[in-house]
Amino acid sequence: MTVKLTVNGEERQVEVKDGTRRLLDVIREDLGLTGAKEGCGEGECGACSVLLNGQLVNSCLVPIAQADGSRVLTPEGLAQTPEGQVLAEAFTECHGAQCGFCTPGMMMASAALLYRNSQPNEQEIREGLSGNICRCTGYDMIIDAVLMAAQKGRGLWG
Fold this sequence. Notes:
Layout: E1 2-7, E2 10-15, H1 23-30, E3 49-52, E4 55-58, H2 64-67, E5 71-73, H3 75-79, H4 82-93, H5 103-116, H6 122-128, H7 140-152
Parallel strand pairs: 1-5
Antiparallel strand pairs: 1-2, 3-4, 3-5
């Protein structure tokens, strides 16, 4: 079956034998975009987060057939946007990335939150990031980074 996707603004076609193959595997193996990580494989950790038609999803849970015709934004695509650059700078300044494994998923969840709510408070950030697990930072530095990105990115997220 041929699956058509718009990935990071570029139209792509992928031949798959099985429509139940995971979006994560297609992104990483077929498209060579390795920013989304294989974490738990059960939708619990958020390491594989991408935006699918503007909505945050765990790509390890999405069958590729379900994504046919969709827009996908991966960590690589986010990094190329002004919003992604503001987020990356904020994560760096606030030391929101320690080992770095969760960082792409955290940034995708942060972007999804900021696109919905450009000036979230701490509780809203905690809720927005609740599907992503970090074992290094204790989350406070990540929350500080999202608050900083919201402030520095005023007008970008709208």
